[in-house]
Design goal:
By secondary structure, this protein is mostly helical. It has a single domain (about 10-65), classed as lambda repressor-like DNA-binding domains (434 Repressor (Amino-terminal Domain)). Helix content is about 50%, strand content about 5%. Strands 1-2 form a two-stranded antiparallel sheet. The longest helix has 10 residues, at about 50-60. It starts with 9 loop residues before the first strand and ends in an 8-residue tail after the last strand.
Length: about 80
């Protein structure tokens, strides 16, 4: 049984986290994950669960579509 490759989920986690003066560890603590998970998200190596996306949005005081997208974000947007 072969597994179909998932479509990428693009994100602005690193940009928004940095803008808010948070480290990966601080964001991880706020959302209840390991700091490496935040790194995987920022590099696009991991797509968050829906509940994690909501937690990240709350921690970053942003809406999910401002952080995650199935289309690449425009530079400077």
């Amino acid at each position: 049984m072969s597994r179909q490759k998932e479509d990428p989920v693009y994100n602005r986690v690193e940009e928004l986290r940095s803008t808010r003066g948070l480290t990966r560890q601080q964001l991880a603590d706020l959302v209840g994950v390991h700091y490496q998970t935040i790194g995987y998200l920022e590099r696009g190596e991991y797509s968050p669960s829906l509940i994690l996306a909501f937690k990240i949005a709350k921690a970053l005081d942003a809406e999910i579509p401002e952080i995650f997208s199935i289309k690449p974000f425009k530079k400077g947007a």
